[in-house]
């Protein structure tokens, strides 16, 4: 019951953070549209400026859902072949630690999200204060894996220190399949005290396509707290 009572407040905080981030969008920019609930609010607000006020921008999306939403407001899209750099990307996060170390991928879009973020001159996170932590790891770390490598990668992740590395399932019990046709392992049971080391270890596991540790990428986090908007820089 407490969670249900808190949800309207959390939704309001997400909207406040998204509204602050809209002011970062300037005419002529090419922007990256992130994924997740707070980024969706931001896309809608930007879309209203495009549709109702004639804001001229172009976009690349981190997920088909985000692209479909942007197109519904009339936002024009380009490809990386046409525009290899983005002026700004705004996205959400599942956890935000000191130094803007992030866990992302709770929505399953981490590979495209990381590609878009890596091509951005400015990568901004929008979130409510519930996403802030002192140490990453209480939220399961998503790891995208080539399907045939699952029997090999799972034990490697447990050897790394994760207690569990479970294949993500849909509500009907079927495997969750990423946009690229891969599987996700949700890894939990370990505090990530040294995210740089863990990221390097993950990068060395054959069969791992990408992981949800976003390190040294975000420039700014706009975090909505109960009585204020907090801006954290790296």
Secondary structure elements and their pairing?
Layout: H1 2-22, E1 30-33, H2 37-53, E2 58-61, H3 64-72, E3 88-91, E4 95-97, E5 101-103, H4 110-118, E6 123-128, E7 141-145, H5 150-160, E8 164-167, E9 183-188, H6 195-203, E10 208-211, E11 213-214, E12 220-224, E13 229-233
Parallel strand pairs: 1-2, 1-3, 3-6, 6-12
Antiparallel strand pairs: 4-5, 5-11, 7-9, 7-10, 8-9, 12-13
Helix pairs in contact: 1-2, 2-3
Overview of the molecule:
The chain has 234 residues and is α/β, with parallel strands linked by helices. It is built from six helices and 13 strands. The protein has a six-stranded mixed beta sheet with strand order 2-1-3-6-12-13, with helices on both faces. Strands 8-9-7-10 form a four-stranded antiparallel beta sheet, covered by helices on one side. A hairpin with a 3-residue loop joins strand 4 and strand 5 (101-103). Helix 1 packs across helix 2 (37-53). The protein starts with a helix and ends with a strand.
Which terms would index this structure?
four-stranded antiparallel beta sheet, 13 strands, alpha/beta, 234 residues, 24% strand, six-stranded mixed beta sheet, 6 helices
* Unreliable stretches covering 5 or more consecutive residues: none
Instruction: Summarize the main sheet.
Output: 6 strands, mixed
Strand proportion, as a percent range, falls in 15-25%
Share of residues in helices: 25-40%
| Tally of helical segments | 6
Task: Tell me the number of strands.
Answer: 13
Rg result: 18 Å
